[in-house]
Specification:
Length: 417
């Protein structure tokens, strides 16, 4: 692994003394046992310092993915540093699928789930809801497995790296399925907001790509789940938007094919191609807030009033949905959510100031944040919005009594260990 000590976007320099990439779980156990401070490092796609430590950063990218499929239990397990892209390609080749993916297939399974990453879909939980077990190296170097027979999994599934190094993740499977992607452009904001529930329920997974300073929603992406032999007609207009054939030369080369051609879920659910740089190639900053679905329209209306402030620094906003879950540190804990993501130009000072403005404007709706993206909430606000914080910290002490895995990010946002 490279010794370069910055994250993917280059907005963060890690403070770790050393970054290592062991090739076996035994090596991970040894490193954890003899390191006074240690954390797991994923694919570096977090914009916050959630992964950092003053001690040793351990990347699991050097472990063999060692995919194990149990057809009877309909589960698959894979090493934590495996990317979703590698996982979903291997699953599809054997006729299996997971319920959802994030936008980027480049992110690791353990890193994505530990930070609460999600895809979209009214009926789809965040990626962590598919976890049926985790294998964990705890503070003394021991290897333990936590599954759904223990309430602890509800804490560890979005564990923020606080319990140990997750060396293996077991996920629920389902049979492979087909997905068709359709894109509609320039739907009026007023129409979308008047029919927001209908818009977000119009496909298995729906994303709105928007600029709050524009009179229209730039694109509505619909990912429709199909059975073999299904060939529904494409509507030329929908919600005031016009269907877009992106097979032309204007289509971004790093985005998966859409143009209403059905394909395997593994090539349609992620937005971006695994063989290209995703999003803006890292030349960006990101933040994301989750509000209860009942407040979704009001929250978007408030953001539209800030459009003239937001637009000069915004590359794109993506608006998605996720179903409620029971995972303690999930932004969708016990409520269906509208996820409002911002991909910013790399204007750190302006984005930091705007984030405070946005958070204050959304405060009546008690937004929660994505743990791997930029936010300004303090620990008091986070305790109010995530009601299991105290339980999370109490349980963490059982796994890591000396705070080996605790770091400045967790102390700043959750309080002293």
């Amino acid at each position: 692994m490279s010794n370069e000590n910055v994250n993917w976007a280059g907005n963060l320099t890690y403070g770790a003394e050393t970054i290592v990439a062991p090739s076996t779980v035994g090596e991970v156990q040894d490193l954890v046992a003899r390191s006074p401070r240690v954390r797991a490092l994923g694919t570096r796609h977090s914009f916050t310092d959630i992964a950092d430590t003053p001690g040793t950063l351990i990347s699991l990218a050097g472990l063999d993915p060692e995919l194990r499929i149990d057809p009877a239990a309909m589960t698959a397990s894979v090493t934590g540093g495996t990317t979703y892209g590698a996982l979903i390609s291997a699953l599809q080749a054997q006729g299996f699928a997971v319920h959802n993916t994030g936008s980027l297939p480049h992110i690791s399974v353990a890193g994505a789930t530990a930070t609460g990453t999600h895809g979209s879909g009214d009926g789809n939980g965040i990626l962590s809801t598919a976890i049926s077990a985790v294998e964990l190296v705890t503070a003394d170097g021991s290897l333990t497995t936590i599954d759904r027979s223990s309430e602890h999994l509800s804490a560890l599934a979005v564990g923020l790296g606080a319990f140990g190094i997750i060396t293996r993740v077991t996920l629920d499977l389902q049979p492979s399925y087909l997905v068709r992607q359709d894109v509609y452009r320039y739907a009026p904001w007023e129409t979308v907001l008047e029919q927001l529930d209908e818009v977000m329920a119009s496909a298995y997974s729906v994303s709105l790509l928007a600029d709050f300073g524009s009179p229209t929603v730039m694109q509505i992406w619909l990912k429709t789940r199909l059975d073999e032999g299904d060939h529904p007609e494409v509507a030329p207009t929908l919600f005031g938007g016009t269907w877009y054939d992106d097979s032309d030369e204007l289509a971004p080369e790093n985005v998966n094919q859409r143009a209403s051609v059905p394909g395997p879920w593994s090539e349609r659910m992620p937005h971006f191609r695994l063989d290209r740089q995703p999003s803006n190639g890292g030349d960006e900053l990101q933040s994301e807030y989750y509000v209860s679905r009942e407040h979704g329209v009001q929250a978007l209306e408030v953001l539209r009033t800030l459009g003239t402030q937001i637009s000069p620094h915004l590359l794109i906003s993506e608006i998605r949905t996720a179903a409620a879950d029971s995972l303690w540190m999930s932004p969708a804990f016990e409520r269906d959510v509208l996820c409002i993501g911002f991909t910013w130009a790399k204007h750190p000072a302006e984005v930091a100031a705007l984030s405070s403005v946005i958070e204050e404007a959304l405060a009546p709706f008690a937004p929660r944040q994505h743990w791997g993206k930029l936010f300004n909430f303090d620990a008091d606000v986070i305790r109010e919005r995530f009601p299991r914080v105290t339980d999370f910290k109490d349980l963490r002490r059982q796994y890591d009594p000396d705070g080996k895995f605790w770091n400045s990010f967790l102390e700043r946002n959750l309080g002293a260990p």
